Amino acid sequence: MSVQAADDVYLVHREALFGLAYRMLGSISDAEDVVAETYLRWRRSPRDDVENPRSFLFSIAARLSLDLLKSAQRSRVDYVGSWLPEPLITSYDDPSAHVETADTVSLAFLHLLERLTPPERAVFVLRSAFDYPHAEIADLLGLSPDNVRQVHRRAQQRLGPEGQPRFVPDEQRSRELVQRFLDAAATGEVQPLADLLAEDVVLVGDGGGKAASVLHPIFGRLKIARFIRTLGRKAPPKTRFDVVRANGVPALLVHTPEQVEGVYALDIDPGSGLVVGIHAVRNPDKLRHIKP
Q1: Containing H/E element for 251?
Q2: Rounded to two decimals, what is the model's pTM?
Q3: How many domains does the chain have?
Q4: What phi-psi label fits residue 264: left (phi over 0), alpha (psi between -120 and 50 degrees) or beta?
Q5: CATH number at residue 20
Q6: Vertex 185, ends 180 and 187: CA angle to 5°?
Q7: What is the pLDDT of residues 250-268, one digit of tens each?
Q8: Which of 65, 71, 203, 235 qualifies as a FRET site for 120, CA 20 to 30 Å off?
Q9: What is the phi/psi pair of residue 104, to 5°?
Q10: What does the alpha-carbon distance between residue 89 and residue 64 come to, in Å, rounded to a whole number?
């Protein structure tokens, strides 16, 4: 295989490789590092004997991600509050930006995956997000098929019903709800905002000890509505609220002309049309890649 042909093969799979690494690590920069290292190893490998380039590339990226994740999880033990991934922000109205697999890349889903050990996460991501069968996952990770089945079963048990794929709410309905949420928050009153939240809504905040946030998830529509009202009252002058997508789901991007203050991803129940989850990333280290 020529160098140009090898580069063409890599480019075909680059986006999927980033998706794998990002789902594993929750860090954009780390995922990009994994993709770059995967390319270098692909270029250095004897490619003529590779029967399935996609699986070969995925094997490199998965093992690199697994090694990084083991190191990252040790450092997260001392993290202040809940840990959320760096959000992937796209324009709400850009049709090419819609993530078809939002159920496996959303902040809610990736936060859920924090319950898993690194091997469980690798197996679960390859199975749920990329539909690899157990036998192929075994080849990718250098495990036995029986071991992969056991790890996948254990991961499903840890995640419980929350780990099952969810229906994506209607686009127009979601956009309308986000706008109503924004309008209600702008009033500074609790009840209009609480009316848009499910009774058992949960808010998970990530300030990393560097920005105002909740240390532990909070539950209940009134508590969360009051918390959002308090944040709104403390917002810096010239604060703006833009409707965007964060990891494929509707979100509010809160920013001043100088910097991004936070990203609030809304998990919307397609049946009731109410917000059932809010994942708020306020750690400035995780917002540096986003331009106001």
Answers
A1: strand 249-255
A2: 0.91
A3: 2
A4: beta
A5: 1.10.1740.10
A6: 100
A7: 899 999 999 999 999 999 9
A8: 203
A9: -110, 5
A10: 25
